[in-house]
Amino acid sequence: MQVKKIVLALAVTFVAPSAFAADLSTGVPTENIIYVAGATAQTGGLALSVARLCGQGNTLLTLSQSGALTGKGWKCNTASGTTYTNLPGVTGPFVVLKNEGGSLNGINPMRDGSTQSQLDITNCTVTGTNAVCPAGLVAKPVHVGFSDLSEKIFSAKNQLATQSAGNTYTADISLGQQQGFGVIASAELYAKMAADQGVATPSISRSQMASLMTQTVSPWGILLPKTAAGSLPTTDLTLLRRSTSSGTQAAAELFFLNNPCAKGSVGGSATATVGSSAGQDFGDLIVKQASSSDTVLSGAASGYAIGVVSLENAQPASGWKYLAIDGVHPGAANSPDYQKKNILNGSYQFVYEPVMFMNTKSTLGASTLANIVRFKDGFVQDLGVGENLATSNGLVGDPTAASADFGANTSGYSRSGNECAPLGYAL
């Protein structure tokens, strides 16, 4: 007897969430819209913090800009009168918008009263818990700023805007956090360096990277000293740098060139980085200025390229990869390393402590100023706790912070607020 297997096919109809246009500012008190600008490295942690402040069980919308990456945000889409356990004093729905600029974009607007471009939330398309807002941005003040480095570093490099009357703010608020940076190489360059060094994970020294940044000798002589001339790349090396407003660029100049700490303090003499704009050709090296970390990463997707980004950028399975620095790699992108194993044990040195800035300008109004303080406190509470950063690439809590968590993701190594000091044990 032949037995036939009968497979019953169940027809299941999946209904996609319907999309609709909405003014996301409707019903949101003016003081409940918080404008954030500055370092992009904090965006991932900020998203986690906003979700926690919104609270479990409430609806959080993730906002993005149509066709671009410069504007981002979140809306805690609650009813009027809603209060929050983790955000005492705030009532009703709230919105946090984030301009994706460099660190100086989180500082200078507080000094000169200038604005930053933020999402236009008055005509967004909402699908489920995601909202896409128009490509056109709107100019808004900066309430909270993030920086990869302290104001002292930018001041020593004469990059701070002149502070005008009435523009007041609180500077260098500790996040109780450490942030790692790394040198990335395109897949082609990574393979060449690995072969030259006879290792699986190639390394670059601080002096080698400094030589690239100041173009003292041929880049291939720096990176591939053992490779025979006939096997060297026949195309130029591209050095991908960021603009002068970028905290990542400032961190690279600080770590590799000791700029502006050349005399052991932030008042020391500076050594400039070669090349400041796209397409400058220095023989075997082309220096290209990238507008964002995303642009650096896309530029390292092919050919021979090298650059610096913060470690929260998880490296892909193929494409660019992080190099070790002086023989020490930050760690893998997956659990339990999350690109910070060697930050936790103090052996990886390309690490600084990001800070926050808070606008105190009186013309913002008392209710807005009160909420700026409340959100600032909420962000600090979340971003400085090690366990909150447990699965965040390249970010660890700092035990010197008041809200420190002494778990596995809290580092005992710190510069104690002085970027010119060596990374030391600071429990």
List the helices and strands and how they pair.
Blueprint: E1 19-22, E2 33-38, H1 43-54, E3 60-65, E4 71-76, E5 94-99, H2 108-112, E6 116-118, E7 124-127, E8 130-133, E9 138-140, E10 144-147, H3 151-156, E11 169-174, E12 177-185, H4 187-197, E13 203-204, H5 206-214, H6 219-223, E14 237-242, H7 247-257, E15 280-282, E16 285-290, H8 293-299, E17 305-310, E18 321-322, E19 324-325, H9 341-344, E20 351-352, E21 355-359, H10 366-383, E22 395-397, E23 413-414, E24 424-425
Parallel strand pairs: 2-5, 2-10, 3-8, 13-19, 14-16, 14-17
Antiparallel strand pairs: 1-7, 3-4, 4-5, 6-9, 7-8, 10-21, 11-21, 12-17, 12-18, 12-20, 12-22, 15-16, 23-24
Structure description:
The chain is of the alpha+beta class. It has ten helices and 24 strands. A ten-stranded mixed sheet has the order 1-7-8-3-4-5-2-10-21-11, covered by helices on one side. Strands 12, 14, 15, 16, 17, 18, 20 and 22 form an eight-stranded mixed sheet that branches. β15 and β16 form a beta hairpin. The longest helix has 18 residues, at 366-383. The protein starts with 18 loop residues before the first strand and ends with a strand. The model is unreliable at 1-13 and 264-279 (pLDDT under 50).
